[in-house]
Amino acid sequence: MKPQKRVAAIHDISGFGKCSLTVALPIISAAGVETSVIPTAVLSTHTGNIEGFTYRDLTEDILPFARHWKSLGIHFDAIYTGYLGSYQQIGLIEEVIDLLSDEDTLVLVDPVMGDYGRMYALLGEDFPQGMRRLCAKADVIIPNYTEAALLLGEPYRDGPYEAAFVEKTLKGLAQLGCPRVALTGTWLEEATLGAAVYDAQSGQVTYAMGQRVDGPYHGTGDVFGSALLGALMNDKPLGQAAQIAVDFVVGSILRTKEAGTDWRYGVNFEAGLPAYIRALGLV
């Protein structure tokens, strides 16, 4: 049996409302990958359309976590970053990547900054500049179109998108210094939605598409990113990994819609884990 791979996931953790670490831990673990965590903050719930949440900032703990791991000689096959609550945390994560990465460590950055054309209110105007630096350290980035616009300093455009616009955006993002991009929220026609994938080394653009389901569904970006990383850790090519992740997300949304669950509470990804494991060829 091959040695088990290990991921360092650096995200906040919300006690309720499926996102960030409460999504990353079960999905990446289901992919057969050991998942170690650096929590950047602890919240009672996520902050999307839920009032009265508690929040404890863990910025001061980020580097001590990483330094302790380094002192133990722990090897990580991947480092996975998501929502960061301040400009200061971006700089700290850059240090963590330098500290914990080896030559074969995959760095996946989800440059979480906004959605639907708006940057999250708690983030400062300097945040996109810092996120550009972090993306330059990554091997794979997974922005949505709002985040792509912020990273490129361009106006936001809603879909449907023309293939020429999608491919121009992908290549612009790769020029930030990251060789592989999965651009989420891509739709070229009303019926489908998914991700456009670009590999700067080969110049190839591929599309991973699934059924488009109307309505906002909280946490789907984290579900996609976690499922994508799990597939990459199982040696799936980026395009195939993106399709596996899209299929997993679509199934999660459809189950949630059918059950009539409050969209703020996250999607039912748990019931799709057996199919995800089969898609990875683990059973």
Percent helix among the residues?
25-40%
Number of domains: 1
* Whole-angstrom Rg: 17 Å
List the strand order in the largest sheet: 3-2-1-4-5-8-9-10-11
The overall strand count is: 11
Unreliable stretches (pLDDT < 50, length at least 5) are none
Termini distance? 14 Å
- How does CATH name the architecture? 3-Layer(aba) Sandwich
Q: Could you give me the name of the CATH homologous superfamily?
A: Ribokinase
Domain Pyridoxamine kinase/Phosphomethylpyrimidine kinase: 30-260
Organism: Luoshenia tenuis
EC number: 2.7.1.35
GO molecular function, one term: ATP binding
List keywords for this structure.
single chain; 283 residues; alpha/beta; UDP-N-acetylmuramoyl-L-alanine:D-glutamate ligase; 9-stranded mixed beta sheet; two-stranded antiparallel ribbon; 9 helices; 11 strands; 39% helix; globular
